[in-house]
Fold DUF2757 family protein.
Amino acid sequence: MQLIYYCDRCNNLVDELDVEEVDEEKLGLSILTADEKEDIIKKTDDKMEIGIICDECETKEDLVSLVNDNLVH
Ligand SMILES: [Zn+2]
């Protein structure tokens, strides 16, 4: 099974790996609800695409929330 992590915001490919079987626990997916999984995971027969937020977008979001915080206070 091919695992593909892509950024939900900018659609950049973040990481790609091959696994023999998908261990949701190991991948940190077991904490998600069924709805959330459906939302971020696209699964086909031989690959699984997982939408995450890349470092770049995360940094950008941090900056935005920082600015917003400063505006509020
Ligand atoms: Zn991104």
In short: The radius of gyration is 15 Å. The chain has a mean pLDDT of 91. The domain at 2-72 is CATH 3.30.1490 (Dna Ligase; domain 1).
